[in-house]
Amino acid sequence: METILSQLLNGLDKGSAYALIALGLTLIFGTLGVVNFAHGAIFMIGAFCAVTLSRIFSISFETIDPTKTDFLGNPAVIKTPYVEAWFGPEMGHWLIDWSVPLAILFSIPIMIAVGYIMERGLIKHFYKRPHADQILVTFGLAIVLQEVIKYFYGANPISTPAPEAFKGSYDFGALLGFEANRIVYPYWRLVYFMFAAVVISAVFSFLRFTTFGMVVRAGMADRETVGLLGINIDRRFTFMFGLAAAVAGTAGVMYAPVLSPNYHMGMDFLVLSFVVVVVGGMGSLPGAVAAGFLLGVLESFASMNEVKSIIPGIDQIIIYVVAIVILLTRPRGLMGKKGVMED
Amino acid sequence: MSTSNFTRRGLLKTGAVTGAGLALPTIFTSGAMAFTNEPTGGSVTLGFNVPQSGAYADEGADELRAYELAVEHLNGGGDGGMMNTFSSKVLEGNGIMGKKVEFVTGDTQTKSDAARASAKSMIEKDGAVMITGGSSSGVAIAVQGLCQEAGVIFMAGLTHSNDTTGKDKKANGFRHFFNAYMSAAALAPVLKNLYGTDRKAYHLTADYSWGWTQEESIAAATEAMGWETVNKVRTPLGAGDFSSYITPILQTDADVLVLNHYGGDMVNSLTNAVQFGLRDKMVNGKNFEIVVPLYSRLMARGAGANVKGIHGSTNWHWSLQDEGSKAFVKSFGTKYGFPPSQAAHTVYCQTLLYADAVARAGSFNPCAVGEALEDFQFDGLGNGPTLYRAGDHQCFKDVLVVRGKENPTSEFDLLEVVEVTPAAQVTYDVDHPMFAGGALGECNAG
């Protein structure tokens, strides 16, 4: 029972990341009809926004300390962050410590700009081309973006810790009457789960309750008719591309303390997220979210020793097995529209 | 009825001409090229095959820096680095046997097929007489096999699997780096002193050659001192988030987690383990402990503060105070502005050792070079006196046990050496069961 509860929590956490990326993918597919293989790279750029802000806050001036030596035996160079000099040691330390949450504010305009440039500069030229062409060009773009990140940040993971206030983990087991420290969940992962819930709710509310959202939904249903009403639906869809980029980017920012960012983290998530979108139903936002959580939980359960001892290697293929079963029995996905990926 | 135009004289003539024709290429080959890529001009080409892309690209970049430094020193440039401290004094700074050292590079991408393709290209197109490098045991074993077939020497870089000089050893392959058995032999006494003999260990293991031998070695060494192995769980390479493999540990009575992971996997699994509170956990009145059998400074940087207080082993560390290590750190640090990694150290040593063996053998013939390396004893390249054992082409030298530093003074000062385990303590017999199943075979000169 304890193991099942632990894996359920893990699955919800993994599912949060899958759902956030799949949500953005679905927004882009539903509005622009583009299969965007560069979406994982946007998630990765978001994580590196957190790395960048952390480094900006850590930019230091150097003073020589003759009493100490560096690795070559020369007088040691002492680095003092400018933020500590400008705002005082306490405030400066706080800024550095809280650089990941603060990076959300830093990343939103950057991600919208990245999304806008990507859409206007490249992807709009592929709207009327086959999906295979879109996949090729966006996949190429993803490789370019990850190589750029590797050039500037190197290939090794970069440690980007959460604020001190969120270190440690919460003992869910004790809350539920189990032995202490047997079902725990890190505080930052709880933050990530809540962040995902807020972002998903905000996107749904935006599309459901605002005029802009209603027009976008109408455009998704019938683009030509909305255009004939004199509405510039293309501009709204471009905005939606920027919004999808912002969702993936902020998801990346908040994910940075969960796993140290590295240049290929986008690719690691991308394929899984596409499976999530297909299982949920291409173009279905609720489907993407539901499938994200469902597959995250299933993946966690599949990695249990008890399950692996019965079906070795199931932890590595479970998502694809589920995808095959869903596509064979319900080609439109769990909540997809009739006619999408279905004859 | 059939007729024949053959005469006895004609048959003899035809036989002689055919025989001469068949012998001709051999005569030319043996005269012009006694072995694969015998250098004929004023230079000799070495092939540096390292990961320039993929997950280990940073280690590959550091290896390339060290290779370039070694070439500079061999050609008489720079401050000479460890050539000044190397116990063998045949290298004179005039290249190798008077031939200027040149090099070509390849990208292994940390993939066996890509590594073999780039090594093949360097041997066939660029005329490399020796191949070196790598940052994965799978890659090293694949390239070592290729070099054996091609008839060139392979000086392995970063490869820690027992199999490289165990069941997959080859006469043309040589390893300066230590291996999983040696890590376990060095770590076990330290772990015994720190954590006692009554411990229950849970292993998470990278599911490939290196992980398997690491797990086998460390489990055997810790069980021999009384520890119980609670579970061994294989994890997919590059799993990313290891949380679903970490949380089941909380529901066992294990009090030690052994992370048989390397590179990004180690960074992620250690980060997850710390996030889930394993460092703060008490089991049966004991502090829960984490062990990382194979450490590197580059990995420690990725894991950040999570490495504090965690023990592991390493082949070499820049803080060593022997003359060879100091000379290398000074040379590398002055040129590049930061201290070298263990990957840089081992490939620099391999390049010098190859050049030295050629000079001592008086030939680039791989069989002569191999003979010069076999049972060669040297000093001055860090880690104290070292033996290149003839039986399996494995180097035996002191192994370092390190700990993540609690209060680092710089971005490089992440690990501290807590024990220098003497070479004798990590040496094993050539026919040790963990290294059985293969044969060195015969040297191939092409």
From TrEMBL, chain A:
Keyword Transmembrane helix: yes
Membrane topology note: Multi-pass membrane protein
UniProt key word Iron-sulfur: no
Key words of the record: Amino-acid transport, Cell membrane, Membrane, Transmembrane, Transmembrane helix, Transport
Predominant subcellular localization, coarse grouping: membrane
Cellular location(s): Cell membrane
One of the protein's GO biological processes: amino acid transport
Any one cellular-component term (Gene Ontology): plasma membrane
Family assignment from sequence similarity: Belongs to the binding-protein-dependent transport system permease family. LivHM subfamily.
Full protein name: Putative ABC transporter subunit
Automatic annotation (TrEMBL), chain B:
InterPro entries documented for this protein: BCAA_transport, Leu-bd, Peripla_BP_I, TAT_signal
CDD domains (alphabetical): PBP1_SBP-like (cd19987)
Organism: Celeribacter marinus
GO biological process terms on file: amino acid transport
Family, per entry: Belongs to the leucine-binding protein family.
Protein name: Branched-chain amino acid ABC transporter, periplasmic substrate-binding protein
Alphabetically ordered keywords of this record: Amino-acid transport, Signal, Transport
Top-level taxon in the UniProt lineage: Bacteria
Taxonomic lineage: Bacteria, Pseudomonadati, Pseudomonadota, Alphaproteobacteria, Rhodobacterales
Gene3D superfamilies (alphabetical): 3.40.50.2300
